[in-house]
Design brief:
Number of helices: 51
Helix content: 40-55%
Largest sheet: 10 strands, mixed
Strand content: 5-15%
Shape: elongated
Structural class: alpha/beta
Distance between the termini: 105 Å
Strand order of the largest sheet: 8-3-4-9-7-6-5-10-11-12
Number of strands: 21
Length: 1474
């Protein structure tokens, strides 16, 4: 190998790996290895669980099947010989036993499970498992939920129908796909199908595929395929004893033969194995059991009492599908049949709307021939009869059958039909009420269904009936349902009236920041290492009812709102003592520091339930729920501003960046709400709007909107014109806001001008407006001649002009005037300070210097007053924090501190000069403090904000610049100077000189031409000269000047050109960025200055010290409380506050209406509307293409109808002729040929449907395995010919010699055929007499309530009327003696003659046969309250708890249909509505 070749084999080291990069790469590899190890452990655990719990079936005895003609030896189980275990293969001469599926198929651990990958586009993957037919459905449910991590469903959709490929019309297919996916996605449903790539399963798979391609939310649809393992093509790829992760499955549909491929669009597969191969339908039984198991699981939490609903959706299908529908309906499962999908689905759809009596055998023949085509020729007449009976039973239970039809206008969706079917089934169930329907709709999150199907005009609700649904909707985060319930009469006041309900809502909070905060409050004694479990511990304690109350919520909310607020939920004596010390200390601090009288008010305000709900939604950052609650709030502006404060505080303290961002967005949203409502209010009435800003809000901690906005840093809200107008009004005091500054200044200097009208007061403006209004009213009276205007406003104009003293007082107490006097005072202070420093700074302080000290003392007193002055009740800690956070206060503290230190130094002889230096530096700080006076200026105020931002930019820039300065300075100093040990000259050469170079002061010691040896010291001994550079023997510089010059050029290039221009660019960017917001920021900061001077004493420094002395004496000596100002905080009377809040609510409604109008006119909404219109037009075009043949079909149907009418007319003519004796022979020959064996000539019976028994014709006879012969509705009467009628014989247990069969012809069921002969389960042939007792009483009430007595039946939890089969007509059944007791039984026997007969006759009982039937007599025995038998019943009730009970006579009773009808008759007899 050549050297070149060997070089190519070496690694490329162009990108060298640093140790840090290598370490990071090792960390990544370690993490990946840990993930792989964790995955292997999980798979190993899963595999062991599967082998322990899931079994498969295999044949253990090979016996060749002689029916198979292929060359491969095939066992009777269907598997070839080579796929059997060696132990199963016996020798050829073995003749011990024959193959039996029950003995020779056994269970072994499954060997096929894991992940399945279908390959192709999209690389679709799923889960699969091979299971035995005898597997417990509970194990399968655990597999789905615990091992495969599926969330329990809110709905189970079982899709059944044609197993062979069939086509759907494009419109029906799109409707089905869209509706099925919508109902699955919105409700969180599981879809169960056969799982193969054929027939209805393929259509479901295509629907899942289309949804996955069109939806951004992948993996939300769960499609479970339950297929037969023995018919799966290419199933060998799925077999591996340790599990396949994944198994690569190939869909080879061309070579599948009699087998079927799995559908690649399903997500999970349960492959059912019974040990055989090639036999379809093996999975049906296990699928049915699994669906029943799922349907028994609780929906959501167990407290709801709901179970997971199941619905069956039918497309196409044959006889097997008909049996599936029948069994589903018998089990109470509602079915949705898609008309137009073909075959049996269309047959059922055609007859679903007809009365049962019109669904004849002839009609079913016609429909079968129409929809099954050539397949109809293979059907036998007996089979058609059985199907007719089955279809009649299906459509008879119409509440469980829903037909979905695609209307001419494409109205209706499959998802709506499915959910309507479930609601219809629950609506008609005896044991389920409308509350269950509502709970189901909430679980599905389908408010549209609830609005159209539940909250109808016919339904009547009590508001309290909806409280449980309201709680579920709130906890389940269903905002649409909350709105719907509020619209339908739910009162928040009634719902949240009990504090326990609100506590329960907080207990059910989702995992969020507030929940952790609340958990830490409740579990304050817990250690920090349990922080991650706090969210779960609070739920555990909350449900136990220990240590949790609204007081804890109040404490956390007060922390978020601010300590200046009062607790929203004041503590009560019964509350837990946890953290109460902190709460009481915080409350007492607030009350001590607050000067307002409202904080000492002992009246507990009423809870605002709208506030409570809004707060509950805000603390969990739930935008939709908070929006609903905010719309219900009366004090909406305070609520919105409080929400911004809480959300910003939570975002600040939270650790989740994404959650914090969402909170800040929601805070901005509610700030916009507050701005919108305020703008509406300001446009309507400015004076009322100002009251809204400063009124005390009792429901939000006795604070104001203005204070909340300031604390929440809502700059946009504070910058509003209305808020600024209020601040300007407070700034001017009682002076008019329209006075120019020079007028105010002139009156300050020469106050007599105020008596000349030179200065306008606000009182004068009010009087002038009222005068103008009064004049306008007088003019209106002259024009109209009416005095109504005078009567309405005549009482309001009683203001008097200000007197001279009041004008003088209001002038000098105005914050504006105080500010101007303080400016003058501050300039005088600086002037005096400068004079002292430059002219009059003596060893002994002069008079001017003493005056300066007194002046400073007054400033110190004012700063102390500002620190302790707390009108808002923040508390000292919060007030001190706010004081320090203000830049100007920092400058004040700094300047005073430096002044005190300088003063101390100045009074000593040693540090006298140092003290003067400190005072000179302090003068600079005082001058900088002078900038604060410009913050009130509209022009200069925003510029100061820009200067602050630029100073921050300059600070970071100086850090970057110092790198270049130090780098160049140290290098230059090292090259030029050798071992200079003078620190001051080292710093000068390394830092100071390079810094001066930036400003053009170029050094002379880096170039030979400018070097002068006299300007430096050779040895560095001269302290006034720098040390000379390194010299050679000729005393000339020895350093390389080319290098020093190049270094200087590079340094100037970067420092002087690049960095300085960068600084200019940064300043420009900052200016452009801040300029747009400076006005808003200035308006926000203006408040603090106005509030400071509003509370400041009138006299300027140094005279202000007299005011401080007065305040000290008043507060500390006389102990008089300060008078609270009403400029920033007003407590309104109750009536005025209610009126103001009602007006605010009206403005809020206007704002919401205008917002909705803007949204409807937005570009996004217009684009959406246009897209919907285009979709509608497209659907109509497709529908027109499909329905182009409709006119021909309608004409053919009309022709068929006319032919049928002609046939009826001919039949009528023939019957008339027969009745008159004409053509008897012809009629006889004609009727003789009209037998029931001819399917096309069946005549329909005219019997009423009510006359036929139904239960007596059920296929399965109770208590046995016998099946009745199918008897359709038209063949029930004995008079109707039914030659093929061959009923099953049910002999009695004691019949041995066959004598009973001889007596059968003596007894015939009076209501017609039942499909079974013999005595059956009854006691005797013929009528079996029974009695039902309806024992009633009146229960006290308004009006009185009619009740009946019921007894527990044989089945657990079932109740019925007391009764049984009679052995004698004058005695009750002996069975009642065992239930009622001997004493009560005797007394009831004595009352038997007094009973009123409510019913007597035939009973449609499932035990009836052709020769034996049940007849009953229903007796109503009404008991008085004071009778002896009532006392005996009450004693019996006490002894046999649960076996006897009184129930109200109503339609909600859970008796069987026969006894319900008896109860209805009794209610009518007592004039009571049933």
């Amino acid at each position: 190998m050549t050297m070149t070749g060997s070089t190519e084999m070496l690694p490329n080291f162009d990108n060298k790996i640093q140790p840090q990069q290598l370490f990071e790469q090792l960390q990544k590899n370690t993490i990946q290895i840990k993930q792989v190890v964790s995955c292997i452990k999980k798979r190993s655990t899963f595999a062991s669980w599967m082998t322990e719990n899931i079994q498969k079936k295999e044949c253990c005895f090979f016996e060749k099947d002689d029916k198979e003609n292929d060359s491969v030896d095939t066992c009777k189980c269907g598997y070839p010989k080579n796929e059997h275990v060696p132990e199963a293969i016996k020798s050829e001469d073995f003749a011990g036993e024959t193959w039996d599926k029950h003995r020779h198929i056994h269970e072994v651990p499954t060997d096929a499970f894991g992940d399945i990958s279908f390959g192709g586009l999209g690389l679709k993957t799923g889960k699969y498992c091979r299971v035995s037919t005898d597997t417990s459905p509970e194990i399968l449910y655990k597999l789905l939920t615990e091992q495969w991590k599926l969330s329990p469903p809110n709905l189970l959709i079982s899709v059944t129908g044609g197993a062979k490929n069939f086509s759907l019309k494009a419109r029906l297919k799109n409707t089905f796909n869209r509706g099925l996916m919508k109902v699955a996605q919105t409700t969180g449903a599981w879809i169960i199908t056969g799982g193969t790539n054929a027939g209805v399963m393929k259509h479901v798979g295509q629907a899942v595929r289309d949804y996955a391609l069109s939806s951004s939310m992948q993996g939300q649809i769960v499609a479970i395929g339950v297929a037969t393992w023995g018919v799966i093509h290419n199933r060998d790829a799925l077999v591996y004893s340790e599990g396949c992760f994944p198994a690569h499955y190939s869909m080879d549909t061309k070579d599948q033969g009699q087998f079927s491929c799995l559908d690649n669009n399903h997500t999970h597969f349960l492959l059912v194995d019974n040990g055989t191969q090639g036999r379809y339908g093996v999975e049906i039984e296990l699928r049915t059991r699994l669906e029943k198991c799922v349907s028994r699981k609780h929906l959501g939490n167990k407290g709801s009492g709901l179970t997971i609903p199941v619905v069956c959706v039918v497309l196409d299908g044959g006889p097997g599908t008909l049996n599936t529908i029948y069994n589903a309906i018998l089990n109470g499962t509602p079915c949705v049949v898609l008309e137009g999908s073909g075959r049996i689905a269309d047959v059922i759809a055609q007859v679903a709307g007809l009365p049962v009596s019109q669904v004849t055998i002839k009609l079913i023949h016609q429909l079968m021939k129409k929809f099954f085509g050539q397949e109809y020729e293979t059907f036998q007449d007996d089979t058609i009869i059985k199907w007719t009976k089955t279809i009649q039973d299906i459509i008879r239970m119409s509440h469980l059958l829903t037909i979905f039809r695609v209307g001419p206008d494409n109205q209706g969706d499959v998802d709506v039909a499915i959910l309507q079917a479930l609601l219809k089934a629950s609506r008609t169930s005896e044991s389920l009420g409308i509350e269950r329907q509502l709970q189901l709709a909430i679980a599905w999150n389908r408010a549209d269904i609830a609005e159209t199907e539940i909250f109808t005009e016919e339904s009547q609700w009590k508001a309290t009936d909806l409280h449980k649904a309201m709680f579920s909707a709130l906890v389940g985060n269903k905002p649409e349902f909350v709105s719907l319930l509020l619209e339908n009469g739910v009162s928040l006041r009634d719902f949240l009236q009990n504090e326990d309900t609100l506590c329960d809502l907080y207990k059910q909070l989702p995992n969020c920041f507030f929940l952790h905060k609340l958990a830490r409050q409740v579990n304050k004694s817990n250690s920090f290492d349990r922080r991650r479990r706090l969210a779960f511990s609070i739920r555990a304690q909350a449900h136990a009812g220990e240590g949790f109350s609204l007081t804890h919520v109040s404490y956390v909310v007060r922390h978020l709102l601010g300590s200046f607020t009062q607790p929203l939920y004041p503590p009560k004596q019964r509350d837990s003592n946890i953290s109460m010390e902190d709460i009481s200390a915080s409350l007492s601090m607030s009350q001590v520091n607050s000067q307002a009288p409202l904080t000492t008010d002992t009246d507990e305000p009423k809870r605002d339930v709208c506030r409570d709900l809004f707060l509950w939604a805000i603390v969990q950052n739930n935008k939709e729920m908070a929006e609903i609650a905010w719309e219900q709030c009366k004090d909406c502006m305070s609520a919105a501003l409080a929400a911004t404060k809480i959300l910003k505080k939570m975002a600040q303290e939270g650790s989740d960046a994404d959650e914090a961002e969402e909170m800040l967005k929601l805070a901005d949203h509610y700030e916009k709400h507050a701005i919108g409502v305020f703008s509406e209010c300001h446009n309507s009435d400015e004076e009322r709007t100002k009251k809204l800003l400063v009124r005390v809000s009792p429901v939000w901690g006795s604070t104001t909107c203005l204070r909340l906005a300031l604390e929440a840093d809502d700059k946009t809200f504070i910058a509003l014109t209305g808020v600024q107008a209020l601040l300007t009004q407070i700034w001017c005091g009682e002076l008019s806001v329209y006075n120019s500054v020079w007028r105010v200044l002139a009156c300050m200097v020469f106050f007599p001008l105020i008596y000349t009208g030179f200065l306008v007061f606000r009182r004068d403006e009010v009087i002038q407006r009222e005068t103008e209004k009064h004049e306008e009213i007088k003019t209106m009276e002259k024009v109209t001649g009416s005095t109504i205007y005078t009567n309405s406003v005549g009482h309001s104009s009683h203001l008097k002009p200000l007197n001279g003293w009041s004008k003088l007082f209001y002038l000098y107490s105005s914050p504006q005037v105080k500010f101007y006097w303080n400016i003058v005072s501050y300039f005088a202070f600086l002037f005096l300070f400068a004079v002292v420093l430059m002219i009059d700074f003596q060893d002994v302080p002069s008079g001017s210097e003493v005056l300066l000290y007194i002046w400073l003392a007054s400033l110190v007193c004012e700063e102390i007053r500002q620190l302790f002055h707390d009108p808002d009740g923040f508390g000292f800690k919060k007030k001190a924090q706010m004081y320090i956070n203000d830049l100007w206060n920092i400058l004040d503290v700094l300047s005073i501190g430096i002044f005190i230190v300088g003063l101390v130094f100045r009074l000593t002889t040693v540090l006298f000069y140092a003290g003067k230096i400190l005072l000179c530096i302090d003068f600079v700080v005082f001058c900088l403090r002078l900038m604060a006076i410009f913050t009130i200026s509209r022009t200069l105020g925003p510029k100061i904000i820009i200067v602050k931002r630029m100073m921050m930019d300059l600070f970071f820039f100086m850090f970057l610049l110092s790198i270049w300065v130090v780098a160049y300075g140290v290098a230059k100093q090292g090259i030029l100077i050798h071992n200079d040990n003078r620190l001051d000259w080292i710093v000068r050469g390394a830092v100071y000189e390079p810094y001066l170079v930036i400003f053009g002061n170029f050094p002379t010691n880096i170039d030979y031409t400018d070097f002068n040896i006299d300007s430096c010291s050779v040895n560095g001994t001269d302290p006034l000269k720098p040390k000379c550079p390194v010299l050679n023997e000729s005393q000339t510089p020895a350093f390389p000047q080319w290098l020093t010059i190049i270094m200087l050029c590079i340094y100037l290039l970067f420092a002087n050109i690049l960095l300085l221009n960068l600084l200019i660019a940064i300043f420009n960017f900052t200016f452009q960025e801040v300029q747009d917001n400076t006005d808003r920021i200035w308006k926000f900061q203006r408040y603090e200055l106005i509030k400071e001077y509003h509370s400041r004493p009138t006299a300027p420094p140094p005279f202000i010290i007299l005011s401080h002395f007065y305040l000290f004496v008043k507060k500390m000596v006389l102990c008089r409380p300060s008078v609270a100002s009403k400029k920033f905080k007003i407590k309104l009377p109750v009536n005025e506050e209610e009126e103001l809040l009602s007006w605010e609510a009206l403005m809020k409604d206007r704002y919401l209406l205008s917002t909705q109008q803007e949204q409807s006119q937005s570009m996004e909404r217009r684009i959406m509307d246009t897209a919907n219109k285009v979709t509608t037009i497209n659907d109509r075009l497709e529908r027109e293409e499909e329905t182009s043949s409709d006119p021909v079909v309608k004409r053919l149907a009309r022709l068929e109808e006319q032919v049928a009418q002609s046939a009826k007319a001919l039949q009528w003519i023939m019957d008339s002729l027969k009745s008159q004796g004409f053509a008897a022979k012809e009629a006889q020959s004609l009727t003789s040929s009209t037998t029931d064996e001819s399917p096309d000539t069946y005549a329909s019976t005219s019997e009423k449907e009510d006359g036929f028994h139904v239960k007596a014709r059920q296929f399965h006879y109770p208590g046995s395995k016998l099946t009745r012969f199918p008897v359709p509705e038209e063949k029930v009467p004995w008079e109707t010919s039914f030659s093929s009628y061959k009923p099953t014989y049910y002999p009695s247990e004691d019949q041995v010699d066959g004598s009973e069969s001889e007596d059968l012809d003596k007894y015939r069921n009076p209501k017609g055929r039942t499909g079974i002969r013999g005595r059956g389960a009854l006691r005797q042939l013929g009528p079996n007499m029974s009695v039902d007792l309806v024992i009633t009483r009146w229960r006290d009430g308004k009006p009185p309530v009619l009740e009946y007595l019921e007894v527990s039946g044989e089945s657990q939890g079932a109740f019925s009327l007391p009764g049984g089969f009679l052995e004698a007509t004058d005695h009750l059944p002996k069975d009642l003696e065992r239930t009622m007791g001997r004493t009560l039984y005797k007394k009831l026997n004595e009352k038997l003659s007094d009973g009123e007969k409510a019913f007597q006759g035939y009973v449609d009982d499932a035990r009836n046969t052709d020769n034996a039937w049940v007849e009953t007599t229903a007796l109503n025995i009404h008991l008085d309250r004071g009778s002896q038998i009532m006392e005996d019943i009450e004693k019996k009730l006490m002894k046999n708890q649960g076996h006897l009970r009184w129930q109200e006579v109503s339609s909600k009773t859970r008796l069987n249909s026969n006894q319900r009808d008896i109860l209805r008759r009794v209610a009518i007899g007592h004039n009571r509505k049933f």
